[in-house]
Amino acid sequence: MRAAMLLAALALPASLLTTPSASAAGSLTMLGADVSTAQRALDLGAKYYDASGTAKDPLDILKGLGVNYVRLRVWNNPASGYNNKAKVLSYAKQVKAKGLKLLVDFHYSDTWADPGNQNKPAAWAGHNISQLQTDVYNYTYDVCNSLKSQGTTPDSVQIGNEINVGMLWNEGKVVNNDFTNLSLLLKSGYNATKACNSGTQVIIHTADADSDANARWFYDGIKAKGVSWDITGLSYYCPWHGTIANMGSVVADMKSRYGKNVIIAETAYPFTSANADSTANSITSGCSGYPLSWQGQADNFTAVQNAARSNGAIGVFYWEPTWYAVTGNGWDPTNINNSGNGWDNMAVFNWTGNVNPNIKWTP
Fold it and tell me: Span of the secretion signal (predicted)?
């Protein structure tokens, strides 16, 4: 009997082996997609096709696959002119018109902010910590209130993006376990958001889904300084962050330790190791049990959702599912026309804009 059960288990898809079934778990209410590059792609004439081959608005295709929440990053003054306040305001109207909720991801930079890069906007370059507190408050309030004034109030915001060791370096960087300055900045962002709209949820986001010790160090550190937040956000990419089971353990601990809801704010998986342009892919290998194929991508995303759900998370966001290789929609805002796309093998649309027919967002 045990041998028969083992053989039966080996025949199951990897997504069903990794975590308990969805029916035995809670519910994911934030079924998200970060589509921050979609505006530029559409402006360049990119086409998106559903599983039947019909050209549609990518938001409609994603909504049909279960998405109910859109994440848009905002940069202060990017050289490309994309992902700035004006572009976010414009696209937010389309997001809300389709009945989707909105998460605004404040990077507090003119370009990418992540665990290794947290550069201040050029306009704030010489500012000390006191000035930066005012900068964060005023900028956060301005973007939020501008969205509110046009009828597209954000449902949630991130105060910083993957701020594992702080933001707005060097003033807001955590050095020698000192969270003082970072906490002042986070409080400014929180207070500005709540002044704009008390119901908007504040997310504090790190890329610590791989390490419960690192996650505890960070969130214990800001909690000890009196920082308030509503949702704990974690990034998880299995080639970088280890097993899905370990991610689930971190999610469970974050929820129980801080008594706050948890989301996977970013995840994605490659459908191929091939490259559509001259820019090297950011991720070129997969994880055990998930081949680099449409089915492997879908199974991995299902497994991530199942693990998040069964460990108490309320949401999962796929990062840049619409960012397929479109000439002129490069990764570098200082050279968007020529820099290429390192994510073309991670999108859920292939290089001709056809959606992965197997992928689903599931409550």
Answer: 1-24
Half-sphere exposure of 4 toward its Cβ, with a 13 Å CA cutoff? 1
pTM confidence score: 0.92
Residue 81 DSSP one-character state:
S
Say how far apart CA 125 and CA 238 lie, in whole Å. 35
Residue 9: what pLDDT? 31
DSSP for 216-269 reads HHHHHHHHHTT---SEEEEE--HHHH--HHHHHHHHHHHHHHH--EEEEEEE--
Question: What is the tens place of the pLDDT at every residue in 140-180?
Answer: 999 999 999 999 999 999 999 999 999 999 999 999 999 99
Q: Which domains does the chain have, with CATH numbers?
A: 25-319 (3.20.20.80)
Amino acid 3: pLDDT: 33
- pLDDT tens-digit map of 73-126: 999 999 999 999 999 999 999 999 999 999 999 999 999 999 999 999 999 999
CB 204 within 8 A of CB 161: no
- The pair of structure tokens assigned to 252 is 């469970």
Instruction: Give me the DSSP letters along 316-360.
Output: EEEE-TT----TT--S-TTSTTTS--TTTTTSSB-TTSBBPTT--
* Contacts with 165 (C-beta within 8 Å, 6 or more apart), sequence order: 115, 173, 174, 218
Distance CA 72, CA 94 (A): 12
* Structural Rg of the chain based on CA atoms: 20
Which helix (H) or strand (E) is 137 found in, with range? helix 129-149
* Token output for 74: 């905002």
Name beta bridge partners: 30: 315
Q: Under 8 Å CB-to-CB from 107, ≥6 apart: which residues?
A: 73, 74, 75, 76, 113, 160, 161
Task: Tell me the catalytic residues.
Answer: 162, 266
Phi, psi of 355 (to 5 degrees): -75, 150
Which distant-in-sequence residues (6+ apart) come within 8 Å of 133 by Cβ? Answer: 184, 185, 187, 188
- Count other Cβ atoms within 10 Å, centred on residue 44: 12
Query: Could you tell me how many residues make up the chain?
Result: 363
